[in-house]
């Protein structure tokens, strides 16, 4: 095993970075997602949390991507990097996907938005670089069904935001082959 250092990297000037994540409560089966858009100065621009009822982890992750895409499009951002810690969800959005896949409609809605008139790319990041989005996704298990938009960050995620703002580094253990 090796370790690598991981930290949240701000976007380039004139771009917005949106980190998204999905969550599933194992006891209730409830799924939620959340995300936050920040600029090159590491300032929060807008965030969201959504509660979708019950479903799978992958469904939560793809709802997070779709919710984030809708949020930044509606906010008028046209140069966006979206980061998710779900390799599976990112692969489904960036590649051809089967019509038989249970979440096909969510994936197609994401792809439709990605074809809009903007520069937008969806990328995978390690979970250690996605703590703010993870906190928002877990926060939503306590919210009503639907989507909540945040213009100011909820108090429960301030510590994660400060961690990223300071450029704090996390260690990740990586298996080498």
Automatic annotation (TrEMBL):
Lineage top rank: taxon: Eukaryota
CDD domains given in the database record: RNase_H_like (cd06222)
Entries under Pfam families matching the protein: RVT_3
InterPro entries the UniProt entry points to: RNase_H-like, RNase_H-like_dom_plant, RNaseH-like_sf, RNaseH_domain, RNaseH_sf
GO-annotated molecular function: nucleic acid binding; RNA-DNA hybrid ribonuclease activity
Ranges for domain RNase H type-1: 19-138
Name of protein: RNase H type-1 domain-containing protein
Organism name: Acer negundo (Box elder)
């Amino acid at each position: 095993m090796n370790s690598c250092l991981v930290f949240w990297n701000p976007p380039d000037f004139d771009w917005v970075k949106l980190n998204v994540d999905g969550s599933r409560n194992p006891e209730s089966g409830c799924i939620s997602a959340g995300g936050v858009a920040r600029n090159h100065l590491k300032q929060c621009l807008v965030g969201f949390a959504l509660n979708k009822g019950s479903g799978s982890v992958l469904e939560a992750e793809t709802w997070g991507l779709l919710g984030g895409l809708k949020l930044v499009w509606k906010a008028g951002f046209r140069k966006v990097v979206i980061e998710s810690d779900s390799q599976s969800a990112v692969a489904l959005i960036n590649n051809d996907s089967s019509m038989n896949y249970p979440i096909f409609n969510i994936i197609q809605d994401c792809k439709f938005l990605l074809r809009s008139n903007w520069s937008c790319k969806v990328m995978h990041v390690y979970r250690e670089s996605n703590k703010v989005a993870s906190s928002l996704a877990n926060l939503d298990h306590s919210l009503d069904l639907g989507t909540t938009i945040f213009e100011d960050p909820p108090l429960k995620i301030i510590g994660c935001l400060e961690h990223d703002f300071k450029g704090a580094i996390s260690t990740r253990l990586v298996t080498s082959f």
